[in-house]
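Review box. Two proteins, two foldings.
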Amino acid sequence: MAMQNRSDSNASGRLMLIERDQAQAQLVAETLAQYLEPNTSITVVAGGEPAAALLRETSFDIVLADLSSLDDLARHSDDAVLRLVRLAQGALLVALSDGVSVSAAVGAMRAGAHDYVAKPINGPSMAARIGELAQRHGKCHSLGIEARGKAGTSNFGGFIGASSAMQFVYEQIGRISTSSAPVFITGESGTGKDVCAEALHEMGHRAGKRLVAINCAAIPRDLMESELFGVARGAFTGAHEDRKGAAELADGGTLFLDEIGEMDLSLQAKLLRFLQTGMLSRVGEGAVRRVDVRVICATNRNPMQLIAEKKFREDLFYRLHVLPIHLPPLRQRPTDIMVLARHFLARYAAEEHKRFTGYSFEVGNMLSAAEWPGNVRQLQNLVRRLVVMFDGGEITAEMLGAADIETSGMSRVPELAPREERRPAILPMWQQEQRIIEDAIASFGGNVSLAAAALEISPSTIYRKRQGWAELASAS
């Protein structure tokens, strides 16, 4: 029997909760009621069969389904989820379960669930997740959460975005910017690690001094030491004068070592000594100089894997890994995609002296549904290309296809097929497992150990799988 927890008069959205345990159902409903929009209607049903019957009669915007409560609908939860997906006619479907089971999550999403969440439900996190799913799948208007999607800080220290994932990053930056302890930034290419380093510097007490950045992957190994520590006149052919290195130039300020994982092992030992003593010697000079810098480093590689491969010193890692910050990939913060796209469109249109009115609805859906392997940088490049290639007006799907050279044409969002013909898109098992693990890591702010504990696997398993995914991606 269905149970209404709120009046659905003037409801801005309709939510169904499938939960057999009445006490648990009441708890989840009351928890969600505190964080969803006030006019959201919440209907609780006690099993899969009554849920299916209700879905045949009434449309819902989102369905939360406890997998253990669906056994009256089908023997296997995957089959039950598939039946609900077909009956829900486009509603967002989130699978719920006690404990975190990778196989259950993979099965539910293979059957068509949009997401998988372990109980107990965290109200703010669940509401934020619903908002992100609604944005990505075009449900913001029906759920009445467009204002919620814009809540929070949307422009912070050079970053653009108001998603829950970015709010966590902003909080971290604000909290640790005033410290002088080393910061270790991780994240995929294009997520804004250099922007993060600049924000940490500008918000700290060293803002009046220099931020000196050095890319460890862009400088030849035989020149890296002199670039970092400086060189004395006559040290080698061509050294006609004394020259300060990046560390000395940053004295009193911040030294940013980008792509730290590419640094040669022999230089890593000298960097470790510098971090321990605050003293350095220029190449070819016996004198020792004291330098006061805050060190921020960044990498898009897995540092633990580098350590395992003997490419990065473990003692240096722990000397640098004092205050970690993980920047989430763009695919894990879909509510920010259109915010960023509009920002870049306005910025580049002004630079090129052109007038664009925005993006068509279809283009908005296409951009929001894309995976963005190049993250914010890829989106930024795409928008700039659109502005340069076209004269103005509204960005259409045809314009987007012409400018999208990375993926040879971004896929259009397909129309919904008739109910009996619809089939959920099935990704390879490793990609679905990757999504579950990476989402767990993101939800714990990049803390692999906490994510591993929640997933009931060891951290070493996560590191091993990440390496495997990188090899699969490169092979494809």
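Next protein.
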Amino acid sequence: MLLVLVGSAEEANAAPGMPGIICAPRGGDPATGIAGFAAPQLANAAAIVATGAEMGAPPRAQVIAVATSMQEASLSIYANSTVPESMTVPHERVGNDHDSVGLFQQRASWGTVQERMDPRTSARLFYERLLTTPGWESMPLTEAAQSVQVSALPDAYAQWEEPANAVVGAASGVVCTGTPGSGVLAPNPQAQIVIDRAMGQQGQPYVWAGGNADGPTMGGFDCSGLMVYAFAGIGVGVPHQTQAIWAAFQPAITDPAQIQPGDMVLFSSNGRPNGIHHVGLYLGEGRMVHAPETGDVVKVADDIWNAPFWKREFIGAVRAGVPTP
């Protein structure tokens, strides 16, 4: 559900979200600003996010789009003093860069002035190019944005990744919880790195055999691929296969009370190692982040110790390179 962004503010509240996580800061109010952007700008961001959602663009694509508009136009609809027609279209600021207009400063080759100055249409034009760029899912934000914009200052997009995470979170109704990082308090710094990396991939599609140490592949992650990526952050190699994960990190922990955030929890269809079919990263308090199945996305499962399926399938947990505190 999208937030309804109303009101205005002279000075925006620059409250941050959480590094690497798509979520709005707790207590953030679109009417008074989020991540340095005021209500009118956030309304434009909401239009970008809504368009992406309608097109099936994953949250990561929405972050790239919003960050691009932050850099190009400060999330404002620009007219251009050298394009007379643009001055007759509703706008919020006026620039004079070539024939660029709108939230993304798109030039004439992108479409009509009306199309480029309409928030939803201009966002659609951006997504159409981004989503057809080979490998965009595994690119750093700077490269993904640059592949669409071909900017003279490609590195400038990087500074907007965290503000974009917070703004997309606000537009999507996702509020940060817990401590800075992932919203999860880990028992030690290594576990925190692992958790932050996994949580940062929420919204990525499930793709069988997807994911490696550098991020999503083939458009997403499978359950073990997400573990490969998460633990690569602390230099620990994790097999890209659930039964191999179980074998590689024995002894197993079978008492849920002894499992800590940063441990991998595994599930078996027959209660034996040869039936293991799924793995998730434990977050504490009965929660895990995982890549569930085809048609779903990386997300958090709650109350796994009481959920009939997870409770029945649980075989144990393993600890990979994350020391006991």
